[in-house]
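So, can you check this one?
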Amino acid sequence: MSETLLLPVDAIRDGLNADPEFTLAARFWYCDLRIGVGEDLYFMRIENGRVASFKLGTQGFDPYLIHIGGTAEVWQQMLVEVPKPFYHDWFAASFHHEFEISGDLGSAYAYYFAIRRMHAIFGRSVRALERAA
């Protein structure tokens, strides 16, 4: 993988919305998330368990309740098909690597299984993009 990592926002949004495990785990969830990949910021809006929007970039006023982010190198290790220990989960990575989950942790913990599915769909989408390149 390269030093920079661009997330395929459309594929991730569509993948999450088509994933029955995510839609079940995220039902009733309304949340704005900021995803940091190195210096790049992404913003995802979840409305009643569906990803309403997912975009790269900010105008400086994008709201968020939960921040998930880390270095591009850590993201790359976490999005491989079989990650090494402590790269397999965003919470585990936040304890052992340059990665963080912050903000409304009550909401993050309540929707932990939806967040885990997000990790899986992010990885699947990034790997599909790499295979297509």
Notes: The radius of gyration is 14 Å. The domain at 9-132 is CATH 3.30.1050.10 (Nonspecific Lipid-transfer Protein; Chain A). The chain has a mean pLDDT of 94. The chain has one domain: 9-132.
